[in-house]
Protein 1
Amino acid sequence: MSARDVWGSISLAGLVAAGWGWAPAPMAHAQQAANSSGKPAAETVLPGVTVDAPRPRPVDGRAPSARPTAAQTASSAPRRPPASSPAAALSSATTGPTATTPLNGNATPASGSRLGLTAREIPATVEVIGAETLREQGYHTTVDAVKGATGVSAGDAPNDVGFAMRGFQGNQINVLYNGINIGPTGFTALTMETFNLDRVEFLKGPSSLSSGQGAVGGTINFVTKAPHTGPVESEAFIGFDQRGTFRSGFGSGGSTTVRGLDYRFDISRTREVGFIDDTEFKNVHVSGQLNYRLSDSFRTFVAAEFKDYKAKPYEGTPLVPVAFSGANATSGIVSGTKVSDYNGTNLGAVTIDGRTLSTNYNVIDGHKTIKESWVRSGFEWDLNNAVTLRSQIYNYNASRDWYNNEVSAFNAGTNLVDRERFFVHHNHNIVGNVTDVTWNGSIFGLSNRMVASVESSHTDFTRPGAANFPGESVPLVGFDRGTYGLLTTQLQTAAIDSVAINLEDRLKLTDSFALVGGLRYNPFTLDRNWIRNGAERPGFPYSKSWQPVTGRIGYTWEALPGTTFYSQYATASDISADSIFLLSPTQNLTLSDSRSYETGVKQLVWNGRAEWTFSAFDIERNNVYSAQAGQQLNLAGKVKSQGIELAAAVRPTTETRLWGNVAYVRARYADYDLANGGSFSGNTPPNIPAVIVNGGGSYRFLNPGWWPVELGFSVRHVGDRWSTDANTVKLLAYTTADLFAFIDLPKVPLFATATSTRLAFRVRNVTDKRYAAWSDPFYPDQIFLGAPRTYEVEASFKF
């Protein structure tokens, strides 16, 4: 997201919610699934939807147990809480493998619940995309991965990280890292290579219970790779595209010569060249973890991570009058009429000028740099057969710098593009602890599992930002990009102290029917100051406290083996203005409250070869403020969102894989009355398409006379979206298609040490569709274009 948006996106909602942050469970990417009898079936991973459930390895030489049937899974006691804890992951290694299913219903996502439930046992829509699917679908970046999930959209520009789901966008989507919430998506969500990730988890709908403030539309959890117990396994890859992009990575993990000590280390390096002139981003990501089993009942871990991100950003392409562009006007990208929010001139019917499809309106010295570091450590202690104590401490530190021209607004009075600069820097530090106690027992003879946890965190945030905004006007094409110019700054600070008490419980009334619920009490305090020209601004410093209570209650009912019905009611809360730094102390500092009703069904059939899920939801968020141009906010009343989601995958034969998902949402404002007497009630919020469809398939040729070759495709359709609350400029629907081919090579002298070598060829956006990918409500005179056709080649190795 743009730096100007960052000026207004230090959402208190995200900063205070440093949620559960254990590291992931050990993952070994299974290439075989189990049918309902527990017997393996060949070739199970489905591109794009098939994901890799954790498959714990034997501990101390013990063989894993067979996978339970669907009925046994439903009637068994809940599993230990999953990945958010490496210590819990070590203990789970003795419980046997969890088989991969077409939609990964047997995976145990940390973001869905702390109760250790599988995705099928959680009364909500949960998706998991594992490392093998990230690799096979070519999801190089975290933005790529997010767009593969049901009903999720995102901006394509590497520097502009914005997500939307279930009728909400931006900071109403929580982004977690190993279960920890570090702040609002607008400035903390960093585009990164997926090589270091073990999986990406999605929890749809309000979810403050599991991830804290800000989770209205849903939660995305990025989980890094963690150690496994067993022989050392290593992997590496190298890839290129025709624009000059270069990607590489190396990872290794397994047991050391020290009994009980396992390790994991990963490093990736990316230089992605953008499709806009003189744009790119570079990212180095290093992550590592040690797990140590001191005894059968006590396990501990330490993990560290570092990211170094440097970008020459793309800040958007200006909307231009059709009358001005003439023969250069494009079709199929945008439509509608526009009065400039920056200079007030009437552009009339607008278009994207064909001469600007790769034009960079940023200044020559524009840049974005981010350095992040993590340190995490914790333990798990089985006090007895029924009680487990876990605790983790963590420290997150980030230094961020934006220095760009961010406004590019066409002026119909001068036929020039008005430009304006913006600068901001962040020093961001969080220290936190999460401690919980898990109890497995019974109530009145009914199986019960309860988790009680206490979270605490302290955030220090310092933000030197621009106090002046240099700018000028330039021709639409053929201009001197210039430099930033004079910069003067001002200082804003925030100190946030948060405590949260969580309680979750699962009570099994019968072997097939369970009640699942929880409550979260989360008092937090903000202390702010703002200094400009050496003096404190009026009303500063000030302090404000909140005490939100959120929760959920639902049920799961396995009416037939493999068929689970569910319903739930959930609530969430967040800062009403989305961005606390846009409100003065005299304005409304109350919280928004959200509620959701959801019901659905999840089914695994055909001996584990087919799986589908269906959900219907109704969400309402009250006391909403909405972003407007010029860093202004409107009191928008409420947002209502109803929709349905359907995902399915099937393996008709050993060689064939098919998958698809579709989401429909109707989102609109209510009680959105303007000060001038107008109204936006009934309008759709920006960047929310009514329909998103993903699908694909592949066929693997197994002729003994050939090297194994797999051919496949994927298709993505995103419906019309609006660029602002006014609903006057439409980002038109688009459909893109990708083609890919894999060749698995036998051992050859060049790669003699590799046990698996794969060459991958991919064409993205094969029809070279030009489309609008995203808009920024703070910059409504410009939009972000999607990437054109791209050719890629990659070699990967396992050894």
Protein 2
Amino acid sequence: MYRHLHVARQLLAGTAVLAAFPAFSQVRPPTAPAAGDAAPATPPAAVSAADANDIIVTAQRRSERLEAVPLSITAVSGSNLVRSGVTRFQDLGNIAAGVQVSRGGAFTQPSIRGVTTLTTGLGYENNVAVYIDGFYQSDTLGINGDLVNVADVQILKGPQGTLYGRNATGGAILVNTLDPSSQLSGNFNVAYARFNDKRAQAYLSGPLADDIGFSIAGYYRNSDGYIKDIDATGKKDFDAAPFKSASLRAKLKAHPFDGVKLTFGYNHLYLLDGRGLVYVQYANAPSSINALPGRATERNTASLNLVPKNTVKVDEGTLKSEVATGIGTLTSYTGYTHRSVYIIYDFDGSKVPLSSTSQSGRQKTFQEQADYNIDAIKNFEIVIGGLFYRDKLSSSFVPSSFGVNSPEQFSNASSHAVAAYADVTYHLTEKLFLTGGVRYSRERKHVDYHVAAPSPILPGSTNATFSGVAPRAVLRYEIAPRTNVYASFTEGFRSGTLPQTPQARPELLIPISPEKIKAYEVGFKTASRTIRFDTAAFYYDYRNLQVGLTVPDPTCTGLGCAIVNVIGNAPKARSYGGEASLTVTPAPDLNLRANGAYTHARYINFAGATGTGLNAVTNLNVPGQRQNWNGQQMARAPTWSGSLGADYSVPLAGGKITLSGNGTYTSSFVVGNASLYGPTGPAALQNEQRFRQKAYAMLNLSLNWVDASNHFSLGVYSENVTNTKYLVISSGSSFGSFRQYGEPVTYGVRAGYKF
């Protein structure tokens, strides 16, 4: 069961790290708050440690019981992430119905209830916002790491336009790491798994003085990867997608004055992950490519002339300031991040250097957000706040054909965003609550580019300003203690943007309109010591989806206008459905979990879509084909999805052994490219989507033993036990149709020590 969520941040002291190792799945009993900690914002009765089924979330920027928040949320503690086999950000869909974490090439792209992004590249942001310790993460590369030092993860479903407004049309994912503990504690863990996957993690936390505490966590992982490149004879040539990650996260929490708490943070990440850049042409390739010797077409093999790289380096400094006032708490989040990126990949999937691309970038981000949580006014709960955000990105892009580099393309992009918001809950009666909120957002964007000589592409530069208002209205009724029903209306706003790469002509630097979504939701939540049940139904009206298009040159008015590739808007889509989750603790050492979702997500007005069709005569792809996607399933939106999980503990050899399992099911869905076979395809298939994943199920299992002292642990685990084949990449180009599968069955051992 998802126990003690958020307790590491506000309720528990002396808690060892809940990282990606079962050694951290044991939570120590509650003690006094850590040095310098303020009292929880919720009343003590609401967060009683006597009830192990209390889950505290911050979805409304204040600490509340999960069942009292009128919003669909999947909230999971760090220990339960481990029990469910969730050790990476991309695994979150395994425990949250209606959620997928997918890849668009090198870029990580979450999807919630069918809302996702189909634009990829440096400078483009997701429409599911990710926050780590309250700080927004614009990076779509570095978030695809392992979940380390995690206290809890909260997945907020539906547009979060009022309180988490920047680019949160689909929802928000809040990742909270452990705060410093009041007692000296630490741990060290190692693991080894298939594909020469080596991991090591260390953590140390405790007080430096009465009013100062610290924590420091380090993590290292190095794996050969599961994709092997083969040479012309079919023998292994090199590891096509090795994975390496190294991170350091440090916190210093101080209480310099009464009512003042400061948390300083420094985070460093190095990530090498080329798994999304291995393109294997399996069908519809031209004869010139089919004739090449040693070309890989089988699962988990590749035939490349270089090792794909997706390297990200991140350094981030943060300061969270909390000041208690007479009427509430003022919280400030100040952060500065520097990122550097290098990407290179072979796109044609052959040993001949037909087509490759390299890209590099440097990004600097500053953010300042302040929330004033007012709780001293009778019958009112008020949050008011504001945001300032500044981002600057410099990048270069070098395409290569037949081993010869084209002129280097240079681009500079910047964003300056401000926002103001207010959210007020009024207690109409003791059991009836009305919430109203609104956010105003304004963002100014700039892009300029030039191309090294010789090149016919002229320099270009443009600016655009986007603004919007996102309201929220919610009615909640408490049927009984810890049992609520609610109905809500919310709007989401994803800022407009500009093309981030050089265009054929400067006139094609055309602003892309903001995405907007109107969401209606009704839900029911109940919880007790042994049972938690949540269910919700939703309806979305989704406008101006930002997508890639191949269209007649919109700046050309005469005859003979060319066809150009641009980022544009799909006019309208619709999504509706429902979901439910249930957790039960029938016995003290047995926890059962189940969830499921139905999602009907369709393009409604998208007759001018651009797709990769098929020529039925030549059996070759037709890139850039104009297609009608009206009524077609949106990408990454399976109609049915769900999971079942359980963990059971019994005494063994003086300690305790825990068996955990988590199974997931997903019905057929579009992997990322919603293209049809199109008007040139086989007659019976012209209106069918090409790049789909069939329905599949997966199972993760683990067995972990902890000694009687709760210091030592040993474990074994296996992911994708049934060795299920499932696609993470599926699309097509002039080189053929390409795909890449997810990891096959893996298994490993791990050991840990904590004090």
Protein 3
Amino acid sequence: MSVHDEMVGDPATLGPAARDLADAARRAGHTEALIVALRAQAWFERLQLRNARALELLDEAAGLARRAGLDERLGEVLVSRAAVNLELGRTRVALNDVDRAGPLLADAATPELELKRGVLLSQIGRLEAAHAVYRAVLAHPAATVDVRARAANNLALGSAVMGRVPDALANIELACELAARVGPALAALVAQNRGLVLTQCGRLAEGLRQLDTAVEALAAVGLPLGEAYAESAEVLAALRALPEARELAARAVAELAEHDVPLMAAEARLKLAEIALLMGDAAAAREEAEAAVALFRGQRRTGWVAMSTVVITESRRRAGTLTSADADRAGRAADALARLGLVAAAVGADLAAGRAALEVGRTAMAARRFAAAARRSEGAPVLVRLQGRLAAALAAGAAGDDAAMLRQCRAGLRELAAHRGALASTELRALAAAHGVELGLLGMGSLLRSGSPSRVLDWAERTRAAAYLATSAPEPQAVEEEGVELAAVRAELAAARGRTGEDVTELLARQTDLEQRLRRATWHREGSGAEKGTTVRAGALADLLDGEALVSYSRYRDEVVAVVLDRGRRRLAHLGDWGRVRFEADALQFALRRLVRPGLPAAMDSAWTSARHALARLRELLVAPLGVGADTPLVVVPARGTHRLPWSALHSAPVSAAPSATLWAGTRERPVEHGGRALVVAGPGLDGAEHEVAVVAGCHPGVDVLVPPESTAQAVVDAIGRCDLVHFACHGLLRADNPTFSALELTGGQLTVHELDLRAVAPRRVVLASCDSAADVSYAGNELLGFVSALLARGTAGVVASVVVVPDAEAVPLMRSLHGRLAAGERMASALFEARAAQGTDDPRDFVNWCAFTAYGAG
């Protein structure tokens, strides 16, 4: 018996011992010993997720016990077989095994049997009954440590999904304490579940950190990772790291299906469907959810069927194929989930049912469902409360009560701000904005109807670049080892690419893996729990403008709107269809990129004509209707999708841009020590970089110069702290797939957005004479990640950067002119304007440089 009892704690050691014991018992003809050994061996196979093999061994052991009349041994085997049948999705068969085992077992075995009964009750959705069983097991004097650990673990998981946060947290800590006394395998499994519980209780960063640690522990003891992948996918989905979540959910589905665990495979498939829905892939969401429904029905799991039904309904709504019957099905699913006590799932189901009812014109049903979602979300973790706020806002909007809708939207965005403040990672804070997108749109719609420019501007600032309102303390040492390793891999990769025909697949895979490790390390850190900054109001902005006009652009559904602050006046401008702006913006980007590549004269002329036409049309669409004087300096806060426009080329006076008016206001208040020391940096492999550096250095009386091989990332970071102005002449690498790893190419490595943020590197003024250096990547909720946003948030007062690829040699005269004016004490925007005015535009490549660079911030 000791081999079986200790298996749950250390299967890697005891699994082979169980096989040896079974072989010895067969040879000796010792039936009872063989039954015990087969049960232990089966448990090892179950822990390895080889349930079909485990069932074979348990069926053999049950047959031996029946024939030998060993009733108590038969009862023990039936208890183990119930667990295996459950994981195979055979809930009725598992329940029969538990019922048959009861009369056969002695009192001492009752806790183990009751634990299995509780698990069965949980899986068929009878959570209250299961919790009563788990509590009884915990209190039973004969319960072993491992049985008590598993009971506390299961009680915590159930309490979390029922919204009972204190109970969930207390029981998972008890489970961890007990599991540590049993062995490394059970400790790893409970640690994995602790990560999920923390997440469901609203502690996302801590939950992710716990899960990542648990995955390492599970691998160390040789246990499969399918369930851990599924739980990690759930955490990442809550953090809105959706591509990573989808990849892990797909791995979980594949591994769990391969290992004969249809019970958990069905759950992972539903998680995959939910993530696909979040990513806007309604077709994939419906396909996965329908496959999950078929599995859950076969397993007689009504709660899981209800959750799948909700996903199917929402995917049909988004695909435009919704019917009134779908709304009814979603409503019944919501009621079923509420009866089962699944609070978060019930809130989401009521919200989906309300949307569906609204879509098919059943307003009374929609109002009931939205009210139920709002009521049930009270006191729940923050992401559930946000769904309740959205439901209440939708209900108010459907009733025509704009004031009530706005109150709910405001309250929801305040709660989202607190959630965002609990995340130390800028990337996670940016991703978190996705939770508030619809609240932001509802509020914006209400305020546009009010016609108040100030209120529209104030609202836009609530939902724009809010991730940068809080900045975490520098902590480069937290990822120093991974950073060194990544730098080495990048150096290898650069060298390999210089050798013709060399395969770099393995190096690219290592680079990706290290980047992911670096990101996850920053994701694990927790924030202070509150955003340190506040958004600037329209009145305060007007006071900061010194003869400038400020234009804050927004997109509301398919329309572009702008709030203009100009000479003390505030006005709201409706600029028309977003599709027209997007068409011209895409045409301009394509033409500018074409102009910097060699080509036939006819193709170049066509591209140049296209660029000039698109530029003129964008002026007509976005600037001319504002009524701003031609000689009035402009402060531009772009709308989502317009950050890469060449704003300097759209107005006939100095232009400065910023991700938000709040960030711009912060730069206005930062003193800039004109005449301070300058740093000029040249990167490797760039023709003309050292010439550019020499020209720029000649504009400043006090200057440090770093050129290859001295211009390493570490040397640059060390030198920045001594300088007021930094100029980079190097290759830029835009990573739209992973913008925190967009980089400037330096000697022997890169300086990434991630490292700038982690080290809190923020010189007062920066000129990025690099391709695409201003191409910050947009996220849902008007969030941006990239060099410009990171620098302005960390304390830089002014940046000049390019929104497109720039021709290197032709940029030198523009840079000489720019730096001459900066050295004379001019601000970035006016210095760039005058430098551009002196720049010829008769040559296509000069024209590209004239368009490419924009000033950011007020410095």
Protein 4
Amino acid sequence: MDALPTDEHMMIRDALARFLERAGGLEPAFRVSDGGKACELWQGIAEELQFTAIGLPEACGGLGVDMRALVTVGRELGKVLAPVPFVSTVALAGQVLMAAAPGLCRDAWLARLASGTARAVLAHGGHGAGDCWDAPVFWAEQSGDGYVLEGQSGSIPDLMEADLVLVPALCAGERLLIALEGETVSGHRQLCAPMDATQPVGVLELKDLRLPASAVLDRGTAFAGRCRAAIDRARLVLAAEMTGAARGAFTLTLEYIAERRQFGRSIASYQAIKHRMADLYVRLNRLDALIDGAAAGFDRSAHAPATDGVAETEARAAQALACEELFAVSAEAIQLHGGVGMTFEYAPHLFFKRATAMRALSGGPVAAFRQIGLDLIDGRLSALPVSGPASEAETGLRRAVAGWMAENLTGEFEPLRGRGGAGDGDALPELRKAWEQRLAEGGWVGLGLSEALGGRGMSVGDQVIFNEEYARAGGPGRMGHIGEGLLAPTLAAFGTEDQKARFLPGILQGSTFWAQGYSEPGAGSDLAALRTRARRDPESGNWIVHGQKTWTSLAHLSDWIFVLARAEEGATGRDGLILLLMPLDQPGIDIRPIRQINGACEFNEVFFDGAVARAEDAVGAPGEGWAIAMALLGFERGISTLGQQMGFARELEAVVALARQAREPMDHAEALGRAWAGLRAMRHGALRVLGAVERGEAGPEALGYKYEWSNWHRSLGELAMDVLGPEAAVHAPEPEIARLQQMYLFSRAETIYGGTNEIQLNIISEQGLRMPREPRGQTQSGTR
């Protein structure tokens, strides 16, 4: 939850945004791109805002190490391609300088950087130097009381105006950090003609440069480790700046297509354009979540040093993703601007050139993801989330859940470990029902429900802990999820006191199981087109229901179903609907299983032919059904998503284990690295959304979660089959592999049920981005 911006971070963001707007927004970038200068920007950031001191030690005049503040500044600068050396001076050189041992020279330079009176760069290699920031390309030899330094760098942004050049060098196999003043290298740096004129670059070439011993700021293995950590922090700030640039390109494109009209309407109303913008929006939200999560991880480790290296790996993944997303968004900016996007007058070319330059200068996304994948294969990294520093109460809860699971998920319940997941939803139903009662006896049902209603009234954070530890222990898919996760909070919000008293106890005791009656053959993603009818019996006041529901999960194993039906004659669309609670064991209801692509029968068709819902079992009044149904779907995307992600992590671990046995594990390393990065981004995104909901600050970002996870999970299934190779053509006898094959087949449904990808993109574009709806056609009644 600590990835959410604090009031202080929002103040930093807003202050910098106002300053950059007064400075002309993109105007300084245009000016510099056309050969001009924008020195006043850096001066204002240093003197007026004092943001050059962010992230640097207070003892040297800085404002303290705060990664969330650093990435906040990086994002805002990126949005307008501000031609200032923030990343090179504060984020990269400043962080590396901090990693050196304290001393007069080091502290004096840090003070100058914090005050904005000096600019600095780190001399590094080019694309061919492996990890260009962390692979020294300079060599030093001891000569008398000093050193002789030589080597040639790659293209270094902001080199030509640097007052300090930090040179990592190797001397007899030992890493040194050498400080060179600008005057010392004035004849050794050469200006290049940059692709991105807003970011001047130069090359440093040293040959037989003699230096005093005092030029060495630090050396040795311990320093090398601190330096790598500093560079990873810098990667995250660079990722934030690139993401900010991608946001800038996205926003100006969204504004342009809203104004541009073709064929008599705004081009923003065309579905092809809306889907492209919505997809980019989800990808940018994913990237922002990863950056914020990593920044929070770095800040936590500053107080309680972490040893798992997750934040550092997330920073490398974020840099790689940012390279790709900036390129994708800027390329689309040109395409969607049309011909004017190719002109110097419009801004897309500035973003595209920045994207091209950063992709070339940052070492390449493929190599970064491949290394993450190799770390997974070699066991240096895990797909399972590691809980960071926590309060005594949080730690105690984790231990309590883990201990209870270890004690109870054994014996008769041992076969349930890892069962009931994607494609396995109808596995061992009676044993899983018994497990629900065991959970209830342990007090682990109704965690978020208020104590007054029989729940435990747990906070969002504590519910997250339970779901993570439950999944970590291999807890089975919950048979009671629809009742506990969907209906119970709906009844708490909209039900009568009588309904709460009658239905909640069965849910909380794990003795009553529910199904969801929403989709119909002609009303899947377009739920408002449903035709199931409910008509009031004038004598009893009960509701008589006729119609059909489909894709009804576990209806054949459930006791009750909640049904969305049309209660008013002649009503269409969202009007005239009602939500009814109905027992499934009654005349007039016929349940027929649907055999799925993987052979399982988790879904059902449910036919209603004069079935009865009692008058007192209607939730809300006729006409209120749509609003209640949508609120219920909102509960579906709640806390349990973290447990779902833990299940995904276990599946990714299984795929990694397969890759270790593959003939060529390296062939799968990049895809594994991408899967890990996507999973971490989803985790941080879900935590951010849940935290915002708890604070009453929920935004449109939540709209993209279903689209994001379903596509990620489908890709994981495809990766599993790629790793299996020819063996994927045969049903595996090994349970772990068989479950992956089931997951692969079932995951094709996940981008369909709950709203297809295409419908999700419509919702994201229209509700999240406020893009115009497609012009609606005419129905027989004249409206639609």
